[in-house]
Structure prediction request, 961 residues.
Amino acid sequence: MLTKKNNVKKLLQVSFSMLVILIIFKLSAFTSPVKSNDLERQNYNFNTFWQFSRTSKINSQTKWETVHLPHSPTIEEKEFDTHWQGICYYKRQFHADKSWQGKKISIKFEAVMQKADIWVNGKLVKTHKGGFLPFSIDISNFIDYNPNKVNEVIVKADNQDMPNIPPGKPLKKMDMTYLGGIYRSVNLIVSDKLHITNAVNANKVAGGGIFVSYPEISTKKAQIKVQAHVKNDYNLTKNFILKTQLKDKSGNIISETIQPHILTKNSDKHFSTTLNVNNPHLWSTTNPYLYTINTLILNSKNNQIIDNVNTRIGIRTIDWRNDGFYLNDKKLILNGANRHQDNIYIGNAASENVQRLDALKLREAGFNNVRAGHYPLDPAFMDACDEYGLTVIVCNPGWQFFKNNSEFKNNSYKNIQELYRRDRNHPSVILYELTLNESWYNKEFATKAKAVGKAEMANAFISCDYKFPDHEMYDVNYKVPLDIQKPTFTREWGDDNRYCGIKKSNKGYIWGDWARRDDEKSMIYQSLARQKDLNGDGYWDWFGVNANPNTAGYALWVGFDHNRGGRPDIARCGVWGLDRYPKFCHYFLQSQRDPNEKLINIDSGPTVFIANFFKKDSPKEINVYSNCDTVKLFLNGKLIGKLKPDMFYNEGDNGEKAINHVPYPIFTFKNLPENATGILTAEGIINGNTVAEHSVRTPEKAVALSCDLDSLNKNLIADGSDMALLFIKAIDKNGTLNPNFNNTIELSIKGEGRLIGDIPVQAEGGIAAVWLRSTTKSGDITITASSKSLKPVSYQTTTIESNDNFVKSVTLPKVTQIRTVTKIDKHLKNSDNLTKFLDFEIKASSTKNGYSTKHLNDGNLENWWYAENNNNQEILLTLKNTQNLAGSRIIWEKDSTWYNFEIYVSNNGLKWKKVYNAEETGHDFNIEKWHAKNIKYVKIKFLNVRPKNSLLGVKEIELYK
Prediction:
């Protein structure tokens, strides 16, 4: 008993002492300034002066090229059938600074596609699998701190098909790309051995790094819980102070805690504190207010900073309810767009400012949401979404592929964990898509994926497709019928391939090939079709879009046109081209924003746009997009019409359809004179006042070139990485773009810049685009553009010095000033010399009314056959003459439905032989190869359709001999 009493007494004494210390620290914090010094964490830019070689093996004879990161192993054509896959190497040499000795030295890679091996001074330090998430390597014990010794980092990057690394699907069957290289930024970080960890590298469930949560949020008060994971790599116990500060956007400290702590040698621990803020600014799409949490480790003896990490946060509440999505307890319709990360020529290797500009473009187009389909996006893009008020649905890497083995599944679970640990503090993130997009995974995977996600953030919302395994257990379902009692979201809409006047490709069938910038009619049609879609008259599984009263929202497929891995056509259903130049539909969707919503430093408010080039042969029915209540149209200064928005649109044989669910319908002017030319001006009017104006002028013969830099900032930063697209335009004597100009343009450059692209570059719709990239030295740049019979132009700009700390290179070899398309044989080309024929009759076991079997071989992808149901259905093809057959192609009606089928052949209709069986989706467009002689009959048996609520439908059936 005496011992126990003494222990209690001793414990009380220690507790009282700690309390006194805590009070002293709290008082001293406001009287003694924190001392900053070189003990503090240092973050170095490690993107510059890498050596690169596209080779499967390196040796003393390897030839190296000097490059800066982010970097793509190849410069691809603007549009490609497939891209380069293989192995490449990166090498970086440097001297370690003397001050680094005794510190923790790590290199953080934001992403490498898609398997990376890293050596430091000849020793393999790490192998990382997965091309979309960050990883770090601790090189403290591998580098030489002798200032005369050269340290060397070598990275082997492999972007070949790897079925056990999600997404896993081979490139030749992908609707996205595996473009390679070290395509995101790299940093070298020097910190104390007593430090705040990296959340991904720490590998702690619901831990590591800084983890911010919110026990209480209201307009009057917010409580912020900050969990910091601190690691002591010293061989002795460390006493320290953990100071946590909350700063407003002006940098003022509005809340602070100070805690003394002890960590024993070679140990780590999570420490939590709570910050309180009165009358908080709540983060929203219209007021994306950001605070900063500054977490400092201080020396308990002299108050010097040992480590310091800043974390930006936004205080907000989110809720997904059966009737929609709620932000800060107010219903918000999520008007989203999907985004692929590839860019013209450079693939995925875009600089951080290019990533940020994409986010700004989406926000200014009227979107308040982006779905990161189908993988985690660049951290710079995520940061910009926080700043611009773009909500984000983040996605586990996956696309129409599941491999039921432990390696694939474990890699996917690991991706989920790292996705949370990287993005959990972003206020923009509102939903985690944990299952694999359109992939027929099993229930075990769905259940485990959910468990992994909920273990990381129990209150975070998760989503999966309706009718996919375990969908009932997920918070939000995609692609759902109107009557479901669950939060719902249409994750993709607007991507069907209705004909819109586009010249069809000679490479085969086109999927989602909508609008070209040089095809005025296709751009007009794209907007008209999307008005119908928003009104509820689109494809069946978009479930009404605006016409669905219970939806939380929807995401357009797609924001930006994109190349598609192994497909013979690019997706042109974006509202911007691959080069990020807007199509007409950009302005139509922009016109759907609230004119009263005016955002700081973001194009917003009233808008008006004339969707017409106003050429002599342009359509004389003029569509105007506006969110104003009235539009006036003037021809050469003379009023020719004053209209309210359209109330109906034409549905062909179905007559007119009322526009009931489009906030701001199109204005259609039909009284333009037949031979009208000159200047057409639209004025947008609200409550009798002109609030917006747009003019177009009839283009004349192109006589000169002009240049514009599509940059986030006025000047590029001289860090070797910053870049922007340079648009070169063919203009007439009035400065009007000539959209008929499609010639090549020659380019040259002088000064502190580099050009990247297919040079000489081909114009499309009067516009050509190439990348302008900075060097590591600030200075002037002059670019000269010329084309036959046109007046050349010299474009001048100046880059500004970077504020970054750089890891100096041992040598500074010259970087290539003009980087053009890499000529490499593409190994996925289809070399089959097969002959297609359609000379057969078709019968089906059942046919849904209005969807005839005649559609199956009419060459038209805009109509199709449906069965009455999905049970025991067959299609019989009867050839007019017997043939030796080499295969077939079935063009399925739906891109995300899985069709399980078998193909049988016969020469007499009595005895049948099975020649093929598979499970495919509408994205599987390749020929089904099989061989049979003297065939008169072909039978297709449909075994299964997944999910079960999908319809059994086929667009076309082809046979090959």
In short: The two ends are 96 Å apart (CA to CA).
